[in-house]
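pinned: reference chain
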Amino acid sequence: MIGDVDTKLASGLVGDGKSLIADRDILYSGAAAIFREDAPPRLPSGSHPHFLADTVKRVNLDYLIVEGARAISGEGVSEDPEDSPGPLRPRLSGVAGSWWVWDKDSDASPSIAYGNHLERVLRQHELDDILRTTRVTEEQEERSVAALSLVRELLPQVAATTFPFVHHLVYLDGRILSMNLPQVPESVFISTELLGRDTIELADALLHESLHEKMAVLRLTRRLMRAGYTDDDSATFLLPWSIDYEKPRHFNAGRIISAAHVYTHLAVLHCAALLRDTAGCGVMSDLHRSRISLPYARAACLLDAMTREHVRDEFGEDGRLLREVLVEALESVRAELHGVVELEPHGWLGMSESALITPSEVAG
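pinned: its structure tokens
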């Protein structure tokens, strides 16, 4: 059954990675023609030697698209790149705009351009004091390869339709274990500390961050959200597991569907790992049980949030289709593990409708 879930998540309008990348490339090719820029190559193979240069080109096009939209709307084009709203994808996903740092007329190499861009994005988010890029040993790099291989073993179709969205794995020294920066496309960031943990935990992080890259393209090329949707005006949902945080977290609809997408995939990943390990040794540790319980419960909560009054109206037809696919996958996980792990589908759902509030209520 998990094999069927793997196939379902990797196919169709909201899962097929090849069609998503093709549609993304059409979008960027059109933008390149309008702005008389060189477009990144379409559908590069895994051995393509110019991923770094292509990423820089795509960031450049993001910047030009947003600046062009500002000019058309009468907002005016900023002469200072630091005042720009940032790349198109961060603008769509509600992340603060980044600085544009690459001078396309310079002869700087792609690696220098990419590195400069990354450093300034980290500085903008005030992460430069707690994170540093670093080199890793051959043994540490092999651990990354092993984790990627594990995902490919457990969920071959998901891996094949998710990892092509990522071309750069950046290692960091710092207390953040892994992250994705929409302003630095096609890149996943993991800490050297994470490299010291077990393979399934590293595999979880790599798939998690890679799914954000796939979601960025889904937001660009599919009608996940209603016409006219913006993250700033979206209804929001209070995350139940954040209630005891110093600052409880509220997700807008764009973040809800993105997180539901990630957590559902992670629940399926850990289900596949549990079934494999249980078949091999017939026992299951509490650690294994906890690893499936958390993503399952959070996915169930977020998928439920997508149906709540006001929030449900924020999604477009493709967003509703994606929810159906994710719900079906999560139900399959529960059925597959019945009698092995008791998964509570409503573990996080003891929330009243007061969890649903608007941005103005947050501000108040």
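why pinned: The beta strands are 131-133, 168-174, 178-179, 187-191, 236-238, 250-252, 356-357. Confidence is low (pLDDT under 50) at residues 43-49, 72-108, 348-364.
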